[in-house]
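User: Sequence in, structure out. Go.
Assistant: Echoing your sequence, followed by the structure tokens.
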Amino acid sequence: MPYGTSASPQEALTFLEQHPAVRAIDVLLADSSGVLRGKRVEREGLAAVYRQGFALPGSMFALDIQGGTIQATGLGFDEGDADRPCLPVAGSLVATPWLGEGVAQVQVAMVETDGVTPFYADCRHVLQSILDRFAAKGLKPVVAVELEFYLVDKERAASGHAQPPRSPRTGRREYRTQINAMADLDDWSAFLEEVDRVAAIQNVPATGSLTEYGPGQMEVNLQHGDCPLRACDEAIRLKRLIKGVALNHGAEATFLAKPYADMAGSGTHLHVSVLDTAGHNIFASEAPDGTPALHYAIGGLLETMADGMAIFAPNANSYRRFRRESYVPLQPSWGVNNRGVAVRIPHSDAANRRLEHRVAGADANPYLVMAYVLAGMLHGLEQQIQPGKRTDGNACRDERPELALPHHWPVAIDRFARSAFVRNTFGERYQRLHAITREGEMDDYYSQVPALDHTWYLQPL
């Protein structure tokens, strides 16, 4: 049975037998922003969730980041805020140790009221539709997800902004930038050890941790695998467990793209290769820049990249991450062993030749990022699109303003809404839903008057 199908009720019975202390189970559905929504059910109700699904309104996919329904989507009052069944994802029923031995969790996917047809707005189904296209061509993506995040103090600074946490060992608050610093890993080793322990319990294949550029900034990498849907389910679990474990260690974890104006942003990086029917990596080559197939895949990514910025950068803060010489790409570009480009071919042996997509922020929905990246690659493979000149050295030296990615939220949303590629890939209904949801959140955001407006504009005017 392929991964992604609904789970058998026997899975629930077996889990409850093995975990007699569990009294409650969190039923989790990731919305379009990647925020987990759902409910907590008692132990006695879990079997019914597996037999008949768990009812949640379709408006879960019409929410802004604050949980308000964007009524223009038609998924709110227009359809009576109608419920649809959500079916458990096989293998996602796991313990949640940071909440104590009495709580577990399970992820679900929404279907139509017939209990079978995928609900078009569920991001897992959006990704599955792209995977079906790969399978029809005898191709199988192999992917790995890297997630960057910050630990911040539970207490905000006097200004109301986030601030770095105090070191558990020294009590000092660190403001320096120190990439791959072992001293920082030592400071937070207890936290990272618990992340590894909990990840193993939750079947999340975390392979390593490192400190990033910013104070309190870290990265956790997931093992590569040949099921992108599973990889995104694992990324969702990883985000939740990191946030939960961090609280138990006196800090908060945030996947905000740009917590500090003068420090590095946090990204979601995808590593992707593609297998043929014989299990051969079609990108494998002794040449550092890979095969023609790898070039075509990169060409498709670069050609479609600008239209997908509303997915890669889903909110107002997302666009603060795009700054020159910050290892965040400002335009479609590619290179070999170069972290300044949008699509990097990492240094590797021939068998593991792959690409790394470096555009998306840590705040992006992993299902949508994965779907869009894979769709762009497939477009390039089908059309045999050449990627153009390779970028060597400082990517900012080769900037061409006419090729710049949309770095402003309204421009990105408008481009997504008008894109023929998006419409042909995800369907007109999903294109409209995503654009309207982002527009609604944007309108609410820009209707606010922040303190900075008074600081900058009150007296001069």
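User: And one key feature?
Assistant: The chain has a mean pLDDT of 93.
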